Amino acid sequence: MRRFGSVLILAVASVTLIYAGKRFPLTASSIVPAAKGSVEIGKDRNGNTELRLKVEHLANPTSLTPSQANYVVWVQEKAGVPTNRGELKVNGKLEGAFETVTPDKNFDLFITGENDGTVKSPSGPEVMRSTISR
Fold first, then answer.
1. CA–CA separation, 20 vs 3, rounded Å?
2. pLDDT above 90 for 71
3. Is a pLDDT exceeding 60 seen at residue 124?
4. Which residues of 60-98 are buried (b: 16+ CB within 10 A; e: fewer)?
5. What is the pLDDT of residue 21?
6. Which of 4, 37, 64, 108 is found 20 to 30 A from 93 (Cα to Cα)?
7. Higher pLDDT, 112 or 19
8. Burial (0-12, 13-18, 19+ Cβ within 10 Å), 47
9. Where are the domains of the chain?
10. How far apart are CA 52 and CA 102, in angstroms?
11. pLDDT tens digits for range 28-52
12. Distance between CA atoms of 122 and 21, rounded to whole angstroms?
């Protein structure tokens, strides 16, 4: 029983260390002025950058002009091509959360409104952005 307790404490400490990384604010564009958010980064055991994104007061994408169907999270390494990391869902309270992992260490993270969540390059309006460096 004592061994189990030690393993549990070690596991909790490991998770805490992974997510006790840096926090970067997301800057909202003028089309969603009330939106606020942040990106917390950590490092996984393989050296990749773990991202935990949280937003609040982000309007539903259908409220944008022109109306969009989804929000898409993009990661763009310096002087690189943006990659679609997935769709950010916003609930009825205008809050959303998103997690992903990237091998990049220094990059821009931004969110766009898109009509298709699987687009290969951003085409809709940008709503939030942050520059991340680890």
1. 25
2. yes
3. yes
4. ebeebeeebebbbbbbbeeeeebbbbebbebeeebebeb
5. 82
6. 108
7. 112
8. exposed
9. 2-133
10. 11
11. 999 999 999 999 999 999 999 999 9
12. 28
Rounded distance between C-alpha atoms, residue 72 and residue 8, angstroms: 36
Q: Contacts for 10-17 with beta carbons within 8 Å, 24 or more apart? A: 17/42
**SS3 for the chain, per residue?**
CHHHHHHHHHHHHHHHHHHCCCEEEEEECCCCCCCEEEEEEEECCCCCEEEEEEEECCCCHHHCCCCCCEEEEEEEECCCCCEEEEEECCCCCCEEEEEEEECCCEEEEEEEEECCCCCCCCCCCEEEEEEEEC
Amino acid symbol at 19? Y
Measured CA to CA, the distance from residue 80 to residue 29 in angstroms comes to 22
2-133: what fold? Immunoglobulin-like (2.60.40)
Render pLDDT for 74-109 as a digit per residue (tens, 0 to 9): 999 988 999 999 999 999 999 999 999 999 999 999
Tokens (6 digits) for 132: 């991340």
Of 114, 58, 106, the residue nearest 86 (C-alpha) = 114
